[in-house]
């Protein structure tokens, strides 16, 4: 069964310079097609502005496509937004929180939105955070007093409270220290193995994509240029590593990993 199906997806943004300036149009996605099978981890690799975040936002029902066909968990988009929102978990590179509230308060608020019983949700959240390496004493600290790595672990716990069959992860480890990054990667591996969760991951990190994903798609200038396993992509490009394969197949390099996605 295919959890995600994308066919000839297009998305264009337009802007105007000043009151009377000419309107500028930029195509963020230009005919992207791919699929993700149930229980699979699929990684999208691309530099800033390649369209990774735009694609994730469309799949998460936060943006409407301009053309093409999209199905998520068997539901068409647009059309099946309500059901998709109930059944996905999403983590973004800049996860939003109520920063004055504690981790516990933020997570219980999210649990209430999903109609979950507070005590059970708190127990589950604590279990996830323990596996991600967050010290139990930090559970009651305001988010504004936590590091970026800690906040990202809270975001992952929030995305998993309602046991979603699909996780959409938009650069979930960007900006994390090496130890936090390894903890998150290990947890995602365990999650897929234990629950069969389907994961779509966008990243700048070649090693992360190679470690976590069964298949990898190279996204450049709004187009899916190549896809396959890491070994298949390296063989196709006659490259020693995944970064060299990306450069040879797309003609593009990468900005520093800590940079933020433009579109």
From TrEMBL:
User: Organism, per UniProt?
Assistant: Oceanithermus profundus (strain DSM 14977 / NBRC 100410 / VKM B-2274 / 506)
Q: Which Gene3D superfamilies has this protein been placed in?
A: P-loop containing nucleotide triphosphate hydrolases
Is the keyword ATP-binding assigned to this protein?
yes
Keywords of the record, alphabetical order, are: ATP-binding, Nucleotide-binding, Transport
Protein name, UniProt field: ABC transporter related protein
Q: Which domain of life is it from?
A: Bacteria
Q: Note whether ATP-binding occurs among the keywords.
A: yes
PANTHER family, alphabetized = ABC TRANSPORTER ATP-BINDING PROTEIN, ABC TRANSPORTER ATP-BINDING PROTEIN NATA
Domain ABC transporter intervals: 4-246
């Amino acid at each position: 069964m295919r959890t995600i199906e994308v066919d000839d997806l297009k998305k264009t943004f337009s802007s105007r310079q000043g009151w009377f300036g000419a309107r500028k149009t930029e195509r963020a996605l230009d005919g992207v097609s791919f699929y993700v099978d149930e229980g699979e981890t699929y990684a999208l690799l691309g530099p800033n502005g390649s369209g990774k975040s735009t694609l994730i936002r469309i799949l998460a029902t936060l943006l409407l496509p301009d053309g093409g066909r999209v199905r998520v968990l068997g539901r068409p988009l647009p059309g099946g937004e309500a059901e998709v929102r109930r059944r996905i978990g999403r983590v973004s590179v800049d996860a939003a929180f109520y920063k004055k509230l504690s981790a516990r308060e933020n997570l219980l608020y999210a649990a209430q939105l999903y109609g979950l019983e507070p005590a059970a949700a708190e127990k589950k959240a604590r279990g996830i955070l323990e596996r991600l390496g967050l010290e139990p004493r930090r559970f009651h600290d305001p988010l504004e007093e936590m590091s970026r790595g800690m906040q990202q672990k809270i975001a992952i716990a929030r995305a998993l409270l309602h046991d979603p069959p699909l996780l959409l992860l938009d650069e979930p480890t960007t900006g994390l220290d090496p130890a936090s990054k390894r903890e998150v990667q290990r947890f995602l591996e365990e999650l897929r193995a234990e629950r069969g969760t389907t994961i779509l991951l966008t990243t700048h990190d070649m090693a992360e994509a190679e470690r976590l994903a069964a298949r990898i798609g190279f996204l450049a200038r709004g187009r899916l240029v190549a896809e396959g396993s890491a070994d298949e992509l390296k063989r196709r490009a006659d490259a020693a590593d995944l970064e060299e394969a990306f450069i040879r197949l797309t003609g593009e390099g990468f900005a520093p990993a800590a940079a933020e996605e433009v579109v």
